[in-house]
Amino acid sequence: MSTAAKLTPTQAQPAPGRPDTLLRRALRSRRVMVGGLVLAAILAACVITLPWTLRRVGALGFDSQNADRSYMAPGAGAPWGTDMLGRSILGRCLLGGTISLSIGIAAALISTLLGVSVGLVAGYRGGWVDAGLMRAVDVLYGLPYILLILLFKVAFEPPLARLAGPQAANLLVLFLAIGSVSWLTMARVVRGQVLSLRAQPFIEAARAAGLTETRIFFRHLLPNLVGPITVYSTLIVPQAVLQESFLSFLGVGIQDPMPTWGALASDGLLPALNPLRSRWWLLLFPSLLLAITLLTLNFVGDGLRDVFDPRRDAAKV
Amino acid sequence: MLRLLVIPVALAALLVAAITWSGAARSSPADFVFINRGEIGTLDPNSMSWLQDIRMGYALWEGLYSLDPRTLEPVLGCAQRVEVSTDKTAYTFHLRPEARWVNGEAVTADDFVFAWRRMLEEPGDYTYLLHYLKGAKTYQEQFAAGQSADFGQVGVQAVGAGVLQVSLAHPVTFFADLCAFPPFFPLHHKSMEPFRLVNRKTGRITYDPRFTRPPHLVGNGPYRLESWHFQQRLRLVASEHYWDKSAVRSRVIDMLSFADPRTAFLKYETGKVDWLAEVGADDAADLLARKRADLRVFGGFGTYFYSLNCNPRLPDGRTNPLADVRVRQALAMAIDKKPIVDNVGRLNQPVATTFVPPGVFAGYRAPRGLAFDPPRARQLLAEAGYPGGRGFGQLSILFNKEGDHRFVAQIIRKQWLDHLGIDLELSGVEIKTFRVRLHGKDYAVARASWIGDYNDVSTFTDKYLSHSDNNDSAWKNPVYDQLCDQAAVEPDAQRRLELLGQAEQLLCDQVPIIPLYHYVNAYLFRDNVRGVPLNPRNMVIFKALEARRQP
Amino acid sequence: MMRYLAFRLVQFPLILAIIYLGTFFLTWVIPGSPFDKDDRSKSVAALQAMEQRFHADDWRKFLAWYPSRAVRGDFGQSMQYQDWSVSEIVADALPVSLTLGLFALVVAVLAGVGLGVMAAVRRGGAMDFLSLSVALVGISVPSFVVASGLLLVFCVHLKWFAISQWHNLGDLVLPGLALSLLPMAYVARLTRVAMLDVLSSDFVRTARAKGLSRVQVVWKHCLKHALLPVLSYLGPAAAATLTGSFVVEKVFNIAGLGRHFVNSVLNKDQTLILAVVMIYSAVLLMMNLLVDIGYVFLDPRIQVREEWR
């Protein structure tokens, strides 16, 4: 093999408008493949067991209380142990996974929508619009995000609860609250991408050839944004799940009796880290699931980023 | 190479400097260290309502009566002698000539008049207790409305420096106990004077809260406030001028503040804390299971219950199914309280069927409450028009998310679903929102609790008077009011208890509340500690506190 | 350079004013305003005191009077801690958070850069995976789990550190470590990406061809470039870390500012919320400015202009 072939795989410009090349490249990354499989397995396990975990009775039911089975350690009778009310931790973790990942994905979608819109408008329009939007992003960056989430929750949940009931309002507000504070980085990245793409010669050439702005936008600009958008969307999911766990720790997360991994971990904290008598199973299983899933998501996100263009996005988080 | 070391050394030095700057100074060890419940809200006796604040009140002030360190019965404190008129409405207190404020000045009757007047003019949570004084209620209302109010009409008067004359609206059998309660403590007018604020528009007088801070705070109790580091530590030093100085056992007492009960427990375990006044439920249950000798669990002075909204309409305008007493009775009878006490409480709390904790008041016979009876409950629900739970509508259970209330709510919700077929949603909110909503009757079913303030049954029964500000159920029952009013003016103690017993029976039958269990208290202290009484009232008289350290 | 500094400093009050207005409206919109008659927990005395100092029996007046008071250091009376003024609370808490935050930042940067470089240099191998996993713990496991775990293992079981003490450097270690994990994760990730980028560039290949050792190439030449994005991240990271973390302060019982960020919102303590947010914003603006200046020193090719972000 000649030495010339040992170049590190620096990324050339992705061919514009050919997203399947990106997909193929993504799948070639070992990180993304393995990570993707792990995530798919976890998600599948959680979703497939829904018919059992959503029931109010039965071994896996998320709210099937049994006063006599309180705080059972993992064993024959209870695969992952039971909690204070005698409910199966396995069942609650499975349903919790569905809800946690839903919150993560919903927040990521909302953030992507918001971030991409703002970034596109700012980058494409430029000038005052750009400056104004970016200053607004700066100001929002300047407010501690937990404050924003809490204020959002405290302000919007009561009126929403009157409309849709406490349970639905609670979930909706979580999606919106977390989603609406996670879009800032996405906006910056998209704007940066749009700015640098706009200056590219092929855009000039397209314009000179007489293509309409819309066509340029959809055929040339957007496909090149798919990469970074995917990367940052993927990275928002673990961030959102972690934020939900923090909110649960504060007591303003998901409403009982619905479980999320974060809520289970925060419920399990005191009983598990008890120096006198540790009910370790309450904390171990949700934390482990969180760690594995979030690490995998982070790895996949990083892997995607390596694939899609480390050079351009090196300066951003 | 040496150049590289400069940075870490410089950093270390910077950090040490920073740590000292941020308040890390060591102080001399205290004679007694304890961890109070949570953090102190306020040290203004006017506004005190939290248990931990009231506890500290007993260290810094002393009322006309004080409490016996062991039995917590009222004993003469600042007053040396009391004369009571035959109709038991006029009290003449002769103050101890040796009673002193911590700055050495004598305690005068004017100090009491000033303090009680301030309670009426700057109302706090317990101002209603001063309405036992003749003319007090009228005065407060007139003053609040801005009309010219004559304080001379109120039944408290200083006759010379050492004599306080008090006239009550009607005989109050437990007045001595009230006099030992912080709202009735004296205040040192002169030291508060520099903090006086006059409202430019209304002319109302308030006091800048900084008067509660050392070194400005002047009390007449066994201790003075030496230092108060916000949410960290409070230091009390024995007062040189306290009349019963010789009985004060510990010269320096430190109160530590911990936001997290688990960390507080861990600190106790290191041996540096003598008394942990509030043990977290989780830890207490495990300690109890291990039969730890330093854990003291004993009956408390309050009840944990569920409050039901009795208004004809719910906050959102719908008809309130709970307005029908049969529905409320059904809800009460469909709860098996044992899992709650066994799995959530875990401290052998007594299951409650009544509001007033039984056995706490001598001579008081508890009424009969409702038992766990699901078939009868279903019958009642059907009679009320909701057979099998159909047509009940969507209601929710309100509770605050802190602590274990959510588990109780989940248990009860499941039981109502299983036994009655009604599916309530859970509405956990943060404590502030919870208090506002509970007080504003903005709920259908809510978790609640009540701890008694003074040693009389009325501290419980008064809560559900129709006009009481504490009546969170909006339950109005004229017969109940009548019985309580009669009891209020009844001079014979036994007859009085009977009347109150009848009133409470009404409470149990009409179910504006569903009692769940009675509180127990849990303390941690080792055998070398003296002076911590295991009294349901959860108070401590600081002068008796002592920790025998190894010589 | 000087002109740029002046330009940025002049923007401070404007941005702070916008943040003040934004926070003010957010906090007063939510139910539980201090003039809510239904809220018994605010004593008449506290309300009257506030009325006295801010001439505010309604929110419009409060909005107008507050800034003039605030610049004099009077942020009003706390609504939940009646006996304390906001400036007292903050003056007590801020130094503690700053100290802890400083320690945590140093740890985060040192460990994060180290781990990131390792991961980049041994890309694709076990070292990459391992170091990145360690680094990413901060954003993959909830902080309350890690903090509580550290407390239990090192304070309770091993008894290496004292609980809830604030006397010497040793008391900083555990909470500082817990606090450093989140920024460490981001720093490691940024360093890795930037290092990968730099390592594949031409001048590196030239340097290696010329015979410079790997260590020299990595540490002396590449690191500066790799640190640029880290520096950019440090602005907001420093602000967040220096103003404290709720979780760390709750678990280790440290009297810092972090708890107030959360408690003030949960307890609807409007005056404290305002003060806390203003402090955070001021620290953030200052950190961002320092970061931008730092850029110039790290890479002389960068010109400090407004558009460069």
Question: Can you put this structure into words, describing what you see?
Answer:
The complex is a heterotrimer of chains A (317), B (551) and C (309). Chain A is elongated. In chain A, helix 4 runs antiparallel to helix 5 (127-142). Residues 1-15 and 312-317 of chain A have low confidence and may be disordered. Helix content of chain A is 70%, strand content 0%. Chain A has 317 residues and is mainly alpha-helical. Chain B has 16 helices and 20 strands. In chain B, the strands form 5 sheets. In chain B, strands 10-11-12-1-13-18-14-17-15-16 form a 10-stranded mixed β-sheet, sandwiched between helices. Chain B has a 4-stranded antiparallel β-sheet with strand order 4-5-7-6, covered by helices on one side. In chain B, strands 2-3 form a two-stranded antiparallel ribbon. In chain B, helix 9 runs antiparallel to helix 11 and helix 15 (478-489) runs antiparallel to helix 16 (493-510). The mean pLDDT of chain B is 91. Chain C has helices at residues 2-29, 44-54, 59-70, 86-121, 126-136, 143-157, 170-199, 202-210, 214-242, 246-251, 258-266, 270-298. By secondary structure, chain C is mostly helical. Chains A and C meet through helix 5, helix 6, helix 10, helix 11 and helix 12 of A and helix 1, helix 5, helix 6, helix 7 and helix 9 of C.
Spell out the blueprint of helices and strands.
The complex is a heterotrimer of chains A (317), B (551) and C (309).
Chain A: H1 19-28, H2 30-48, H3 50-53, H4 89-125, H5 127-142, H6 145-164, H7 166-181, H8 184-198, H9 201-208, H10 213-250, H11 261-272, H12 281-308
Helix pairs in contact in A: 2-4, 2-12, 4-5, 4-7, 4-8, 4-10, 4-11, 4-12, 6-7, 8-10, 10-11, 10-12, 11-12
Chain B: H1 2-21, E1 32-35, H2 51-60, E2 65-67, E3 74-76, E4 79-84, E5 90-95, H3 109-121, H4 136-145, E6 156-158, E7 163-167, H5 175-179, H6 189-192, E8 196-198, E9 205-207, E10 223-229, E11 233-238, E12 252-256, H7 261-269, E13 275-276, H8 281-289, E14 295-308, H9 325-333, H10 338-345, H11 374-383, E15 396-400, H12 405-420, E16 425-429, H13 431-439, E17 445-451, H14 458-461, H15 478-489, H16 493-510, E18 513-525, E19 529-530, E20 546-547
Parallel strand pairs in B: 1-12, 1-13, 15-16, 15-17
Antiparallel strand pairs in B: 2-3, 4-5, 5-7, 6-7, 8-9, 10-11, 11-12, 13-18, 14-17, 14-18, 19-20
Chain C: H1 2-29, H2 44-54, H3 59-70, H4 86-121, H5 126-136, H6 143-157, H7 170-199, H8 202-210, H9 214-242, H10 246-251, H11 258-266, H12 270-298
